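Please predict the structure of the following assembly.
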Amino acid sequence: IAGITQAPTSQILAAGRRMTLRCTQDMRHNAMYWYRQDLGLGLRLIHYSNTAGTTGKGEVPDGYSVSRANTDDFPLTLASAVPSQTSVYFCASSPGLNTEAFFGQGTRLTVV
Amino acid sequence: AQSVSQHNHHVILSEAASLELGCNYSYGGTVNLFWYVQYPGQHLQLLLKYFSGDPLVKGIKGFEAEFIKSKFSFNLRKPSVQWSDTAEYFCAVSVKTSYDKVIFGPGTSLSVIP
C-alpha cells in the first residue's frame, strides 16, 4: 500500500541520548517534511527537503538534523535529546510545490 | 510573518447540527489554503484545498470551505455533522513559491454528541 511509514511508533528516550526517527515514502514524491505536533500549537515545521540531496530549515530546527540521500528516505536525528523535544513527530511528503501533503502515522517521543 | 489563527479551540455539537470553523491567516502574498482532519489516533488527512479559481471549494465527507480574500479567511462548513466527524481540524496556509512557508493553525477539536 502506497504511503508514508514512520518508525518507531513511540519511544521513551533518556535526555542526552541520540535518536533517529525514520521516515520512508513510496510515492516518489519530491518534497518531504518533518513536523512536530504540540497541544495548542498545531504542527510546526522542523526541516524540509524539496528534492533528494537538498534540505532546509523550518520554523523550529534547533536540536534536529535531517538528511535526504535518496527520494524515499528522510530521517530526523536528535543529536542530544532534551525534555522539550517531547512531542508527536509527523513526517509528510508532497509531489512538489502547490500540492497537498500526505502524512505518516506519527512517532510519539517522550524524553525523560 | 505568516500566521494562522483558528477561532475556536474546542467545539461541541449535537448530531445534525451545522458546523462552521473559522480560520484566518496573515500574509500579504499569494497562498494555498488547506483544511486537514485528524481522527483520534490517526494521522492528518486532507479534507479540502484551495489553490485558485472558485473560492467555494468542496471536499470529502460533505465539507466545504469558502475563501474570502478580503477577510483573509478560509472557514470550514458542514450543514449536518455526524458523530464520526469527531476529530481535530487544522487549517493550513502555504506560500505558493516556497516549500518552507507552510503554517498550520493550532487546531480545533470537534466533539459531536450522538
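Chain A has a mean pLDDT of 94. The CA atoms of residues 5 and 31 of chain A lie 15 Å apart.
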